[in-house]
Inverse folding.
């Protein structure tokens, strides 16, 4: 038996729970699964790990820098990156990168609270080669 089998949940810090729930549902298509208390919300997508929003005591956004470039901690797989790019632009999101990296089209952006996120639309050959490795 393997010690760790999958990522079950991720926790994302936010400043305002209600504003963040609205942003993640309207902008990224998440579904709110419940708000147990005023500092925590369960969110989800169709597949993948649960995505939980937390209002921490001392807020600090997710992300780090490499060669002074913001790096994402959470990476989403998307089907239509152009549509997501357009939606993020209309919402006024900070966008760091929108490019074709060969293996995937990449879109690096911030949520409402400055958490750095990355969306990838994988190319078919890359997707198929990854499935063969599994």
């Amino acid at each position: 038996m393997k010690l760790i089998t999958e990522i079950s949940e991720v926790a994302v810090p936010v400043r305002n729970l209600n504003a963040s729930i609205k942003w993640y549902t309207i902008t990224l298509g998440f579904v709110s699964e419940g708000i147990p208390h005023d500092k925590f919300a369960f969110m989800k997508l169709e597949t993948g790990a649960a995505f939980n929003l937390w209002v921490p005591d001392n807020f600090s956004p997710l992300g780090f820098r490499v060669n002074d470039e913001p790096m994402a901690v959470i990476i989403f797989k998307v089907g239509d990156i152009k549509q997501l790019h357009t939606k993020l632009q209309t919402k006024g999101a900070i966008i760091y990168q929108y490019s074709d990296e060969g293996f995937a089209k990449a879109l690096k952006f911030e949520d409402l609270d400055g958490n750095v996120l990355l969306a990838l639309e994988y190319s078919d050959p890359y997707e198929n080669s990854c499935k063969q490795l599994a």
